[in-house]
User: Fold these one by one.
Assistant:
Number 1:
Amino acid sequence: MPDAMAFAHILDEVGKLPVEDQDVLRDIIAKRVVDLRRDQIAREIREARAEYEAGGCQPVSVNDLMKEIRS
């Protein structure tokens, strides 16, 4: 994350934009964040599948998982 001064500068500059442009910018940023999170989830799924295929984890029942969580 940028330092606090740079972040504050960005916010100040965005505040100078017309409201309509700020709305568009907000929508663009929201869509980018969704895309980044989607990519992160996909990457984590690929890593989990690779770990599973390498024998790094074993399937367990819900009951066994709950017992492990509670212990």
Note: Residues 4-70 form one domain.
Number 2:
Amino acid sequence: MAQSPMGAIIEKGPQSWQIIQQNNGYGKVELAGRWTTNEKVSDVQIYARVVHEETGESVIPWQPCIHLEDQRWEITISGIPAGGLYRIETCMDHSGTNGFVQWGIRGDMVHHVGVGDLFMIAGQSNAAGYGKDPAYDPPELGVHILRNSGQWDLASHPLNESTNTLHEVNMEHSNPGSSPYLHFGKLLKKNLGYPIGLLQSALGGSPLRLWNPDENGVLYRNMIEIIKSQGGDIKGILWYQGCSDACEDCCGSYLERFRNMVEYTRKDLGLRELPILTIQLNRCLGQASDQENRFWGMVREAQRQAARTIPKVYIVPSLDCGLSDVIHNSSSANLTLGERLARAALNEIYGRETVYRAPDLKKAVLKKDGRVMLYFDNVRMRLDAYWVTAPELPLCIEDQAGIVDITEYEALSEGRFLLTLKRPLQGQAVIHGSYEKNPKFYLPVDMETHLPALAFYRAVIEPEAL
């Protein structure tokens, strides 16, 4: 027959495996509960402390708790250094222990707690993670996840598994697989030296309207609820979404609606400069109409413009990454994307100098000799297309007379790419790059970073200045 617990009982506080969001290098925990004993005692005092899980060495020594009515107690332990893993201990001292806390009556403990940074995963299936091929991406102490069950755990794939879920609104229809974010967390932990916690709210197939409070917003509300359940403070959002909006009714307004979601998120959390780390859409295999290709191009362009026009929104490319089916990134591709996101976070959030920015079209200029010069930002060496022929380039020029064939190209220094055309341009012309649902594979690549150029759509070709 089980005995009733005695000593200090924790009824409110962090879970085992939980990551506490640090601020300025420190975190805090709030504990509350009751005490009980079968002995006759007086002068009861409840204590709590924090120790290193590995050694038992004290981090925050025994602190007296505040006593309340009806044998209840509470305490806030501040100044816990970013790091861990830690163990939180409690005990009950009383008249019979003569002030020797180490001989006090037992108390509840919380194990494997870290103080670090929290990141929310949001978006659709490639955020939930559907990589199905084998890839080495094991769990690691110090990278933990708040499961959909509401329980903290050591992070391991699949991150969005729904056993005993509390959030049926984002329950996957099929079992998910690998995602980029375990690898992301491990790389951040390695570079920062403290734990990383992952929160999950993604849902496969979800359109942006489910994340935008001015539309349906059901997944947005779920995301905010999860964040607030962990104190309301996070370090950033990991966003990967857009396939479901590559349609006639949604693609043209994607940028405006995404901006709206970002503004609501920052306002509702009181985090005005919350970073949003995004991934530009990868390809989707199969045949597509010209109209469908343009829808995908408009969403990718909206994602590119979001990173250019919304403060603290950042983007990494994915179009050079492999798939595990017609639309979902492979497990090995997710490792690549996790590293790209980690580099972006280290650079933009933590001020660590890393290379993560992909070549990004700055402008397209019609030269006086009839050729078109493309100028790219974020090129460290030069762009190269691996000597493919001009028709194999994922570039398309349109003017008032229709498609204009590119017959030759030349990769020049300082991020320039020179195109020779089959005929002169007529009237206003635009250029697209890797915009189709399944664009040609050989994207221009920076030969130092090996990052492919971001996709773009309907970039206006300007006349060369006099």
Note: DSSP finds six helices and 25 strands in the chain.
Number 3:
Amino acid sequence: MNSPLFEYSSPREFKLWRYTVSHGQLLLRSSKRDEASMRLEVLFKGVHWIQLPTFFDGLAIGECNIESIPAREDLDLGPALSWHRCFRVSSRTTNGYVIASSVFVSEDDGDDCAPSSLFVDGIR
């Protein structure tokens, strides 16, 4: 049985907040604001390849085929394709792509100084 394809969207602004090489983790964050009382985070794990802007005006994430990535002939994924998934990451003005093993979404009341609830090691 195939797992359902991942989809997520939010009208809020997100920033590329952190990437850690040691665990291949990429964190996108939408900070709390006057009009938004909760912090939103998206964490990609097992990241193998990234093609992203650093700012998103609105965010939409959906799984895609690797064939949909522009200039994909330059990608050398080798055996990683058997356990990685391709995600299209879009905003109102731009598109990007992440190839990773998984993705998670969290909503909490933390501020920008509080560690992410998605990181096991408590990285801010």
Note: The chain has a mean pLDDT of 86.
Number 4:
Amino acid sequence: MPETNSSVQSAEDAPEERISLAREILPAKPRHPMETLLKNGAGALLKVGDMVEGIFMERRGTRIFFDLGPLGTGIVYGREYYAAQELIKDLKPGDRIAGKVIELDNDDGYRELSLQQAGRERRWIDLKRMMDEGVILELPVRKANTGGLIIEYLGVEGFLPASQLAAKHYPRVDGGEKEKILQELQKLVDTSLRVKILDLDPAENKLIFSERRVENEAMREAIARYKKGDIVEGEITGVVDFGAFVRLDDTGIEGLIHLSEIDWLLVENPRERFKLHDRVRAKIIDIQGDKISLSLKHLKDDPWLAAAHAYHKGDVVSGKVIKLNPFGAFVQVGDSLQGLIHVSEFGNEEKLRRELAVGEEYQFTILLWDPENHKMSLGPTQKQ
């Protein structure tokens, strides 16, 4: 019997050993470098849509190549090449630029990139960082509408709602007439405002600015200079149904004189007391956050305390009716006190209005006298 080659016989008897032997005898099939990267190392984690940074290497006609380090070589060509003209026109070898992966491994083994999409996403990434860090931006106002202002930054058109304007720019328009609001907002077009990014949504291409956020920081620092009880001076910057706004001289921040703080007597129309740019002295009666409450009446002696022992429950006093309401009548007693006679003292509003007339004087009986809390309840001296 002829002698048998033990190696061959072994390979025939054991399939695993035969495969191992074939690997030693046959040359290995060349593996594409991209295949190696995808199976081993950083390239395995890369996916379409990822942002990468590359170093510009060269331009070959309408193709440009980037070194992506361990991620391989990036290429921009075709439609993406023409879309990126503004971004690549000044590129020099060694320059770094961001790209977005749109194809992991094309037929030539390159990563296909979009510089235009990356530029767009990079803008939103930068905008998000600025929002998170509270960066203050000084930006020009491009146009206005009834809701606010249009501001552009990094090629993205953003919106500054009127509600987010600083106090000095807020359109105080009685009745909220849209045309008047628009007229006030249009005065800000072509001016520059210091703003922060309030909110954004790249998917909806939404970018919202706030001027108030910048103002609030400065305001907190400015308000720290004041305390309750301080006497301040300033200029009337707005008069509305519920009071008047005053810009304080020392810091330029605004305080409010509420309708009830104008005088110890009833004031119905602040416009009869104030005009824009009037100069006033006022007392700070409260500070809550970024709100300063002012008072004119507290610059005067409190007439209620001065009259504490002048009146008593049951006294009959002379008073002038200054206002009629469904719930009763306001009555001025003396020079600076105000009492209320409730409608129940007459049975109903119709009878009250029949018995009392604004501007007329009558005799009343004091039913409640509480000067400490500024309360005086009155009744008719006899049933009407």
Note: The two ends are 147 Å apart (CA to CA).
